[in-house]
């Protein structure tokens, strides 16, 4: 199982963090969704599943989780590249969202409402908040603030004031690429 660390939630948006559950694209090694333990550990870290909540009963086929993840990735990656997302990918998101809505109740929060799901959940329910997050991002945006790290393919919502974010994180990719560039430049001058 991959090493789960809270510092890896860099997407600023649940569905984008879910898309980032592979260490690096396109190789897709270090995949958190290879095992049920990995999926549940990520869900707890991301706050989708409370630590004490069990996720038995019914379960989720890991292939469903991976299908949703890849659909989210391809959809928003296409949007970043200013292409039209594949309708099949959007359908996977919207179909899961439709199930999520049927199972959810509305809770007043601040000046609006949020969706909540029953505490006792099947592992499949881990996918509902993810699908809701993706649907909301598709419906409401801001799509011009979605970015993709050029080094590892992680997606993020750019919340910087001037919209200048380029990397998943400076620590993980920005500084690596910068130092590679630095050494390449240095060696070129030798
Ligand atoms: Zn990166």
UniProtKB/TrEMBL annotation:
InterPro entries assigned to the protein according to its UniProt record, in alphabetical order: ABATE (IPR010852), ABATE_dom_sf (IPR023286), Znf_CGNR (IPR021005)
TM region positions: none
Ranges for domain Zinc finger CGNR: 145-184
A Pfam family matched in the record: ABATE
Name of the protein this chain belongs to: Zinc finger CGNR domain-containing protein
Organism: Nonomuraea phyllanthi
């Amino acid at each position: 199982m991959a090493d789960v660390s809270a510092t890896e939630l860099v997407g600023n948006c649940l569905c984008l963090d879910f898309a980032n559950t592979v260490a690096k694209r396109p190789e897709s090694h270090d995949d958190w969704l290879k095992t049920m333990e990995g999926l549940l550990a990520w869900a707890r870290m991301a706050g989708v599943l409370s630590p004490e909540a069990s996720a038995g009963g019914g379960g989720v086929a890991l292939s469903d989780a991976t299908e949703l993840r890849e659909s989210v990735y391809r959809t928003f990656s296409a949007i970043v590249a200013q292409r039209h997302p594949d309708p099949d990918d959007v359908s996977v998101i919207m179909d899961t969202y439709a199930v999520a809505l049927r199972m959810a109740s509305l809770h007043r929060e601040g000046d609006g409402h949020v969706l909540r799901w029953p505490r006792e959940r099947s592992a499949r329910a881990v996918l509902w908040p993810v699908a809701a997050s993706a649907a909301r991002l598709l419906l409401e945006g801001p799509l011009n603030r979605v970015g993709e790290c050029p080094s590892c393919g992680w997606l993020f919502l750019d919340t910087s004031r001037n919209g200048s974010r380029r990397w998943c994180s400076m620590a993980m990719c920005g500084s690596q690429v910068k130092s590679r560039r630095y050494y390449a430049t240095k060696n070129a001058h030798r």
